[in-house]
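Lecture notes, unit on protein representations.

Consider one protein chain, 86 amino acids long.
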Amino acid sequence: MEKYLCPGIYTKDKEEEEEEEEEEEEEEEEGRRRRKRKKKKKKKKKKKKKKKKKKKKKKKKKTGEFCCWELGQILFIAGTLSCCYC
């Protein structure tokens, strides 16, 4: 309840003041909790990014291709020795 001392000036009961202070403190605590949660989420995201690594591609042997070692000198002399997948 608000008590008026003179026109335009009033005071609040101690109970109301305490309640408002408690509410403000609770709001501040909630804000802190939210900030902490956001920081934790950001840290988790950063960790996930660090764990990702590029995978090396393995060379696959093509079936049905000639092997340079089988043809040997013939391909070397002809200048087409670039077919080796072995």
